[in-house]
Amino acid sequence: MEKNLPEILFGTADKAISKSLSRLLKAKKIKKIYPRVYTSNLKDSPEIIIKRNLYVVLGKLFPKAVLSHRTAIEGKPAKSVIFLTYKYTKKIIMPGITVQLLKGPLALEDDMPFLEGLYISSMPRSYLENMQRSGRALQVPKTLPKEVVETRLDRICQIHGEERLNQIRDHAREIADHFNMDREFQYLNKIISSLLRTNTSSKLTSPSALARAFGQPYDQDRLELLQLLFSELKQQELPLIKESQTTVVANRNRAFFEAYFSNYIEGTQFEIEEAREIIFDNKVPENRPDDAHDILGAFRIVSDQKEMIIIPESADHLIKLLKRRHEALMGSHPDKSPGMFKEKSNRAGQTHFVSPELVKGTLTKGYEIYRALDHGLSRSIFMMFLVTEAHPFIDGNGRIARIMMNAELVQKNLARIIIPTVYREDYLLALKALSQKKRFEPFIKMMCRAQQFTSEVDFADYDQALETLKKCHAFNEYDEKKLIMPSRLT
User: Fold this and answer.
1) Which of 135, 143, 157 has its CA nearest to residue 74?
2) Ranges of each domain in the chain
3) Disulfide check for 315: which of 115, 340, 367, 373 has CB 3.0–4.6 Å away?
4) What is residue 374's DSSP assignment?
């Protein structure tokens, strides 16, 4: 690339600039790669150069054009074709990219300014545009497949709620009235009405959209298992262990060990003193910042008494609470979609968890069972198992399940449950026995013992609590030692 020259230069009506470009061309310091488009990069191919500077080029050649139709939603060319709404319709073939200009209104009030004077269609406008007939003459359809549009609208509803779909529809109606897009609006309105269950769902094709329209489907096998656990919990008189350690210091120390052990179960392993420095001194190891934030995220939730007294008041509240806490827990892992339910199925060993399209329905049905249980340990156990089985997120499900479990206990001022490292295998095997073999006794017994253990540790003094936990073998692996109850220490 010629030193001090920009990679892309443009011809203009300015005679001085034209003369300069001519001199540079003759001197072979630039080359022409498209009409009115030049480059000082004499090494790379025109395709690579155009791709790297795509929006700069488009902004200069088609000022105030609007990235529209499927391009506005996808945010990128489709099979090397990009769609722009402009003053006229024309197909333009450039090195490595085809620009399909479509005659239509330029930027509206809510369209978003983009690079180099370009705009992007607003969400309501882009969905209206994707309701148009695509036209057979186009090498790539200008609109997304109907199923994709439905799925995306359903996703918007999942994350932002029904109010957001209504806002999109209302704004789309205004745009349609001004630009003769009544037909497009009617199609869009039918999809949104079906998603909101205010109209027939016969027009929908996307599985997730159909599920929403007909009322969320659920995992039948999980529902049966949850009903069996409910019956077992109703038949048992579980212990009622009040929380006796309510000082700020005790709560903070207990929250530290809870966060430490909960992360250790999931494989985020630190030496206890290193974890202490992370949480109490905010000393984040340079080589493990994400792992450190995992522990910090868990600690911030479980140490917040105002947060931990919140339990779900409805199925919708349960879902919102799960997403909010997951976002707080996994915020340092954008690749784990913090605060968003999974889109692909997940498994652990031979256990296949609830399919993505069945998660919300399964949680909703689970909530309906949960609310019929007595407050306290029964609800705590049920909630933990419900979240574990639904496995709604890509990662962090176990930690979220235990947070939800302990919130049930904190809300009723009952002793929390901490699963120490030495008890990890008992915990996991009991979960597996319930999930795969419908054996309830080991699971309930294990949870009761873990609560009793936690209640017997004096958390008022950090060093004393640490010493007690060590004597109880809490930090050992299961094949090294057995858990000892603090009350049995001599």
Assistant:
1) 143
2) 1-52, 58-123, 146-213, 220-488
3) 367
4) P
State the fold for domain 220-488.
Answer: Fic-like fold (1.10.3290)
Number of CB atoms found within 10 A of residue 374's CB: 12
Q: How far is CA 113 from CA 62, 100, 122, 128, in A?
A: 14, 20, 10, 19
Q: Categorize the per-residue pLDDT at 245 as very low, low, confident or very high, splitting at 50, 70 and 90.
A: very high
Cβ-count burial 300-321 (b if 16+ within 10 Å, e if not): ebbbeeebbeebbeebeebbeb
CA distance 442 to 49: 64
Question: What's the mean pLDDT in 418-437?
Answer: 92
Q: The tokens 């911030």 sit on which residue?
A: 300
Contact 408, 400 (CB under 8 A): no
- What are the distances in angstroms from CA 49 to CA 20, 33, 46, 74? 21, 9, 5, 22
> Kindly report the CA angle at 377 between 239 and 349, in degrees rounded to 5?
120
**pTM for this predicted structure:** 0.59
* Residue that the structure tokens 């992370």 belong to: 278
pLDDT-derived band at 269 (thresholds 50, 70, 90) equals confident
The tens digit of pLDDT for each residue in 300-317 reads: 999 999 999 999 999 999
| Tokens found for residue 9 | 């230069």
Residue 482 corresponds to which tokens in the numbers above?
Answer: 């057995």
Mean pLDDT of the chain: 89
* pLDDT(212) > 80: no
The amino acid at residue 433 is A
Name the 3-class secondary structure at 122: coil
Tell me 373's DSSP state.
S
94: left (phi over 0), alpha (psi -120 to 50) or beta: beta
